[in-house]
Amino acid sequence: MKKRRIILGVFCAVAAVALFFFLKVTFSGELIVDPIIVTIGPFSVRWYGVLIATGIVLAYILGRNFALKEGIKEDYLVEMVFWGIIAGIIGARLYYVAFNFDYYRDNPIEIFKIWNGGLAIHGAFFGGLFAGFLYTRLKKSAGIRFFQASDIFTAVLPLAQAIGRWGNFMNHEAYGAPTDLPWKMFVPRGYRVPGYTQYKYFHPTFLYESLWDIFVFIVLFNYMKKRKRYGEVTGLYMILYSMGRFVIEGLRLDSLYVGELRTAKLVSVILMIVGLIIFFHARYRGEEVRRVS
After folding, report:
1. Element (H, E) at 212
2. CB atoms within 10 A of CB 260
3. Which family does it belong to (predicted)?
4. Is the dihedral of CA 54, 56, 62, 68 positive or negative?
5. How far is CA 233 from CA 18, 91, 126, 127, 264, in A?
6. What is the CA radius of gyration of the chain?
7. CA distances from 286 to 14, 86, 95, 183, 233 (A)
8. Gap between the Cα atoms of 172 and 182, Å rounded
9. What would the DSSP string read from start to end of 102-169?
């Protein structure tokens, strides 16, 4: 065990140093990242898709451990995750399209080009929850409780989000307002938001959220191991993630809007309120967690 920790520590240290120098040259503009890894005929493999897939796989591996410890059979878990991913992708896209309807109404074919970006995490969250709700209600033989499933989902979701945000970086999107701070990020002219093409450096809001997601993941992953009742982690996720998203969203230039309100900020406030209700209800009136020995 000690040897594994040493190896892991060395790996993390090397990765951190490599990441630092990578960000140094990309944030300065010395290196411009190509969103496409490789093109084979009419098909392109993009960093965006690879990083989102990586986040999903790692989240599944960690979530699987929690599920097995709580007596969930792997066949049911795989089936539920499959439908959850499908619903999450559909929800993420529909959410984004709905709040950019004027554009997609005139360019309907673009709705299906999700590899170019345009997946809203709130839509993915709602889609995944909806799929989990339906599965636990319709698949009675699985014996999975909804809040049991949602706790596992939200305990590992921040890790997937943290990795997925780097897909936004590779696409040169999800950045913030112009800034001269030491950690300012260069954005190529062709990717700058209209009205800001004269600026070169912007807030790396993708990085802010990725770091916040890692913090939320660490908190929830550890809390998951000792939670007493189903629903506690779900509520905490809604509270913690929404707190960071609310603040960071205020810096972004590409926010979705409902009238004059930023959609993500409005949804974050709603999720914080709902999360508080779910957490305290679960804490004092929820069903006790059952773990297999």
Report:
1. helix 205-224
2. 5
3. Belongs to the Lgt family.
4. negative
5. 33, 22, 16, 18, 21
6. 20
7. 44, 29, 31, 44, 12
8. 19
9. HHHHH-GGGGG-GGGS---HHHHHHHHHHHHHHHHHH-GGG---HHHHHHHHHHHHHHHHHHHHHHHH
Domain spans of the chain, in order of start: 32-285
- pLDDT at position 90 over 80: yes
What does the DSSP 8-state code read for residue 83?
H
- Left (φ > 0), alpha (ψ -120 to 50) or beta: where does 172 sit? left
Q: Could you list the residues known to form a binding site, using ranges.
A: 165
What confidence score (pLDDT) does residue 41 get?
84
pLDDT computed for residue 28 by the predictor: 95
Contact 154, 235 (CB under 8 A): no
**Residue bearing tokens 């809604």:** 238
| Whole-number Å distance between alpha carbons of 9 and 263 | 40
Q: CA-CA distance, 185 to 176, in Å (whole number)?
A: 9
99 is written with which tokens? Answer: 């709040």
Statement: the pTM of the whole predicted model exceeds 0.85 = yes
CB atoms within 10 A of CB 98: 13
DSSP 8-state code for residue 178: B
Q: For the chain, give the mean pLDDT.
A: 92
